[in-house]
Amino acid sequence: MTTPVTIVGAGLGGLTLARVLHVHGIPATIYEAEPSAESRTQGGQLDIHDYNGQLALEAAGLTDEFRAIIREGGEASRVLDQHGTVLLDEPDDGTGGRPEVLRGDLRRILLDSLPAETIQWGKKLTGVVALGDGRHELAFADGSTVSTELVVGADGAWSKVRQLLSDAKPEYVGTSFIETSL
Q1: What is the SS3 assignment for 31?
Q2: What is the helix, strand, coil percentage profile of the chain, to 5?
């Protein structure tokens, strides 16, 4: 018997994991706080490197769909200081080692590749408790709970699942990164 996998978070990591499991016939359910896939925009561009992200998309059987959304020339990088002096200028070398895609486009490919019932929308996780014997209970803001044997936290920096493994908490270290596009 294959144990169903419970994934908390329908970001790119959670969706990719669900898709790879689906390809291998392993059932998974994703619980996502957002009310729907269209409830918010998904941010800007991402580098999808050949040594990790592209391998994950290949394992998910989505290489062709990924290649169709690559933004040509998107591998170019330019870094300027506060005075506009160019500190780094790397043109797109055309190798495809880290092509750029829009986060929303990649998320759409992943969403479309999963059976509709895979994602439970509007399920904001408020806590998770180990029950013993490998089982966990997940509690949601709507008052519902789910018991599961295998839970994966793909719920971001402020993960509620992380507490099962570590008492580490994220903290701001004083560095910001701003990306612009013309």
Answers
A1: strand
A2: 25, 25, 50
Rounded Cα–Cα distance for residues 33 and 22 (Å):
22
The percent of residues above 90 in pLDDT, for the chain, comes to 64
Whole-angstrom distance, CA of residue 45 vs CA of residue 73: 12
The chain-wide mean pLDDT, for the chain, equals 90
3-state secondary structure of 172: coil
In angstroms, the CA 65 to CA 110 distance is 9
Write the CB contacts of 25 (distance below 8 Å, at least 6 apart in sequence). Answer: 2
Please name the residue ranges forming H helices in 8-157: 12-23, 53-59, 63-68, 103-112
Provide the CA 5 distance to its chain's centre, in angstroms: 16
Q: How large is the angle between the packed helices 12-23 and 103-112, nearest 10 degrees?
A: 30
Q: What is the pLDDT of residue 72?
A: 73
* Distance of alpha carbon 14 from alpha carbon 3, whole angstroms: 17
Summarize pLDDT for 77-128 with one digit per residue, the tens.
788 899 999 999 988 776 667 888 999 999 999 999 999 999 999 999 999 9
